[in-house]
Amino acid sequence: MTYDTGGESRRSRRLLEERERKRAQRRRVAAWVGVTVLVVFLALGGIFAVKVLGKKKPPPVQTFKVVIPEGFTVNQTAERFEEVTGGRIKASDFIAQAKAYHPYSFLKDSKNGCEGFLFPKTYEVTASTTAAQAVDMMLKQFALETSGLDWSRATALGISPYQAVTVGSMIEREVKLPTERPIVASVIYNRLTKKMRLQICATVEYSLGHWKPALSDADLQVDSPYNTYKIDGLPPGPICSPGFEAIRAALYPDATNYLFYILTSPAEGKHSFTADYAQFAQWKAQLNK
Question: DSSP labels for 86-100?
Answer without folding.
Answer: TTSS-HHHHHHHHHS
